[in-house]
């Protein structure tokens, strides 16, 4: 009995976090007010868009093969 519950419980919890619904404010709440001087009230989707500075594009190539690591003078053994 416990083993069956131990197998089913994680699956139920995993299924619960896959629900997707349109985002909207909680009941009785409103979206944040527009920025001072702005005449446009952003929607929930616009507020969730990631700013390019918050998630920049990768500008460094990933390593394609193994390479010897350079000596790191700060990689010291633990004291003790």
Notes on the protein architecture:
The chain has 80 residues and is an all-alpha fold. It has two helices and no strands. The longest helix has 15 residues, at 2-16. It is flat and about 60 Å long. The mean pLDDT is 79.
Offer a few descriptive terms.
80 residues, mainly alpha, flat
Blueprint of the fold:
Layout: H1 2-16, H2 44-48
Mean pLDDT value: 79
Topology, number of strands:
0
Q: Helix and strand string, N-terminal first?
A: HH
Report the structural category: mainly alpha
**CA(first)-CA(last) distance:** 49 Å
Oligomer: single chain
Count of individual helical segments: 2
Low-confidence stretches: none
Rg over alpha carbons: 25 Å
Largest sheet entry: none
Provide the helix percentage.
25-40%
Categorize the overall geometry.
flat
Percent range for β-strand residues:
under 5%
Quick summary of this structure?
This protein has about 80 residues and is mostly helical. It contains two helices and no strands.
């Amino acid at each position: 009995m416990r083993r069956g519950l131990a197998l089913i419980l994680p699956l139920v919890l995993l299924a619960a976090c896959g629900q997707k619904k349109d985002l909207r404010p909680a009941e009785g709440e409103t979206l944040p007010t527009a920025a001072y001087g702005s005449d446009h009230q952003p929607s929930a989707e616009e507020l969730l868009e990631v700013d390019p500075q918050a998630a920049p594009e990768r500008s460094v190539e990933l390593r394609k093969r193994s390479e010897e690591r350079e000596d790191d003078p700060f990689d010291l053994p633990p004291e003790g």
